[in-house]
Structures are given as structure tokens and as C-alpha cells.
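Protocol step 4 of 6.
Sequence for Carbohydrate sulfotransferase (Rhinopomastus cyanomelas) entered exactly as in the expression construct, tag removed. Do not edit the line below.
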Amino acid sequence: YLRRHSLETRLSKFNLTEIEAMLGSYTKVLFVRDPFQRLISTFMQGMGSSPSFSSFVEDVLDSGQHSTRMAWQPLVSLCQPCLIQYDYVVMFGFLKQELGHLLSRAGLAAESLLSEFTDSQVLWTYRWLSEQMFSELSLQQKQQLSHFYRWDLAAFPFPNSFLSG
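Step 5 output, C-alpha cells:
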């Protein structure tokens, strides 16, 4: 399958037999992040044209599943975790610990490559940002977001997500 494989080749371009052969020969790693934190990150990076987080969320909810913006699509629609058996699921917030395990399994020196990760500081910052931005949303927006990301919240353990409460 190397003849057709390139960085831009999507899995959907192959037939089922080719897909199964390729997926069986790779170590499959899925990186997941709380959907509310993904929204905040997208907003903070200026990927939306909205002046406030609340109006940005409204734009996301209005475009819904039909949006081509992968930044806020539910993970289950992007990564198909029910169809693909991932070897590892790495949660944002545990990157240093989990990447260290992956690197050592691959025979690489994990310590020298992971010294710059500071998950605890990042988690604290996102917790604070989440509280601030969640308070900007109406009850209806909160409920709609929880519904929009319901499959992500069911598929992955995000126990501290503002959307799961």
C-alpha cells in the first residue's frame, strides 16, 4: 500500500481490505481532550470570528455536525473509536506520563524528550479558563453543548468536564 500512501492520503481513499491491512500493521494512538477545553483553545487561537466566547459557542452550535471545522467536531466523528481499535488512548492532562510509557515501549529515551511537558500547570490554567468561560454561557447553550458532545462524553472519561455535569 506504500505506492498510494502519502501524508495527505486519507484512510477513506482505500478499500476495506487495504484499510484492515494497514490498521493491523500500525500502532494506533488516539489523543483526546475534553471537548469544552478544545472549544476554549479554538476560541483563544482566534479560529472563530466571534467577539465573545458565548457568540463563538452559538456559531459552533449553529454549524453543528455540518461544519468542516475539525477543531470543534466531536472526536467520535473524527476518529471513529468504535470502528478502529486504538492501541493507546492518550488523555490531555496525562501527556507526560502516557507519552513516557509510549516512548519507552518504542525503545526511545523518554526522559530527555519529555522534560518540557508541564501538564499540571496547563490543567490548572484550563480549569480556571473553563470556569470563566462556562459562566458566560446561558443554560440553554450549556445543555446544547452537552448534547452536541454527548458521544465524546460517553466514549471517553472526562470526569471533570463542565459539559458532563
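Step 6, annotate. The chain has one domain: 11-155.
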